[in-house]
Design goal:
single chain; about 375 residues; alpha+beta; Naphthalene 1,2-dioxygenase Alpha Subunit, Chain A, domain 1; Rieske Iron-sulfur Protein; 2 domains; seven-stranded antiparallel β-sheet; 11 helices; about 30% strand; binds FE2/S2 (inorganic) cluster; binds fe (ii) ion
């Protein structure tokens, strides 16, 4: 990543930034149209998606339930440590076989008529089977969803494609993610937020490199130099880097700079809905989920991950301060702006939004979504 630092220094000295090859116009209807949303959801269902952090299933016997894209899921870690993901859907008549959000259990018992399943999804107990008539255990396991544990993340793939691993999917981004060491982290804190905003507008806000100086002038805009960015295009995925203003000040003053890398922060965007930002103490990790029923709504999942071995009181206090800064910027500045844009888009879904040459990171999401739709023939 030496090259990134050198490129950043060049940009800071020259007042330049990495530029996309062309500007991009995205129809405003892409943020408001129900049919467009349906095509996007098809794209989601064709990608490996972040379902959970591996640390959320810490031990053999751990389980976690979560609804993703309208699908209730049950994730388990069996005695051998292997993670499985199932539809949380009883084979009798569709009840949820686990109601609680997380915990540790050897069996999962449906609340409706008591059928029970083990961590590998096998049907074990059927109360009153002699009265129901025999139930064939061999073809009544929980429905399995294709999943993989990699880089401390549990990925699910609703397409069930067996010819593609998560490493294949990540391509060049696989190495970047490996370098972060997410598998050493635990979820320090997390928040789910429902917002009346199209999911792509929230992603745009999370990856937009230009806006902090305008929208967050007293917060992150004061710390980060936001008109110079270095961008790495990994094809399906993307990474952008910004510099702290302190780096520019040091360059201007002609100071020697040790470990210049510390003055640069990156944002790794894993298509379609993940943004991962490492900071010295923690990782800021975003997933933004479309609302299946409404293009103007989404569900945001923000997590702060921390290296379990480095967590002490001082680190925890610093992370809480970072959380407060993020929460203030998001709830008082980013989200209200995005809500306003959504209201405007709903009221006038005509024409295009413009993504300029220096807005490569945001361009990338829309370009990649368009490519995926083309491949799907959607
Ligand atoms: S629906 Fe689960 S036991 Fe009947
Ligand atoms: Fe922002």
């Amino acid at each position: 990543m030496e090259g990134v630092y050198d490129r950043m220094v060049e940009h800071l000295r020259a007042g330049t930034t990495d530029m996309a090859e062309a500007t991009l116009s995205v129809p405003i209807a892409h943020f408001t149209d129900a049919d467009h949303l349906k095509r996007e959801v098809e794209v989601f269902r064709n990608q490996p998606l972040v379902a959970a952090m591996a640390s959320e299933l810490p031990d053999p016997g751990s389980f976690l339930t979560r609804d993703l894209l309208g699908v209730p899921l049950l994730m388990t870690r069996d005695k051998a440590g292997k993670v499985s993901v199932f539809r949380n859907m009883c084979r009798h008549r569709g009840g949820k076989v686990e109601q609680e959000e997380k915990g540790k259990k050897p069996f999962f018992v449906c609340a409706y008529h008591g059928w029970s399943y083990d961590a590998q999804g096998a049907l074990r107990g059927v109360p009153y089977e002699e009265q129901l008539g025999p139930v064939d255990r061999s073809c009544n396991s929980l429905h399995r969803v294709h999943s993989e544990e990699r880089h401390g993340i549990i990925w699910v793939d609703f397409s069930g494609r067996a010819d593609r691993t998560v490493a294949d999917y990540l391509g060049e981004a696989d190495e970047r993610l490996a370098a972060y060491g997410v598998e050493k982290t635990v979820v320090f804190m997390e928040k789910w937020i429902d917002l009346a905003v199209n999911w792509k507008l929230v992603m745009d806000g999370a990856i937009d490199v230009l806006h902090p100086q305008f929208l967050h002038p007293t917060g992150v805009g004061k710390l980060i130099h936001t008109s110079s960015a270095v961008c790495l295009d990994y094809g399906r995925h993307f990474q952008s880097f910004s510099a702290r203003k302190r780096l520019l000040e040091k360059l201007k003053a002609g100071e020697t700079i040790d470990a210049g890398w510390r003055y640069i922060s990156g944002n790794l965007m894993v298509f379609p809905n993940t943004s991962l930002i490492p900071t010295p103490d923690h990782y800021e990790y975003w997933n933004v989920w479309p609302d299946l029923a409404h293009p103007g709504r989404c569900r945001i999942h923000i997590r702060f991950l921390v290296d379990a071995a480095k967590l002490d009181d001082a680190v925890a206090e610093r992370i809480m301060r970072s959380w407060a800064i993020l929460e203030q910027a998001a709830t008082e500045e980013d989200f209200p702006m995005e809500e306003t844009i959504q209201v405007n888009a709903n009221a006038h879904p005509v024409g295009d939004f413009h993504y300029g040459l220096c807005e490569g990171p945001c361009q990338h999401l829309h370009r990649q979504m368009a490519r995926e739709m083309e491949v799907a023939g959607a």
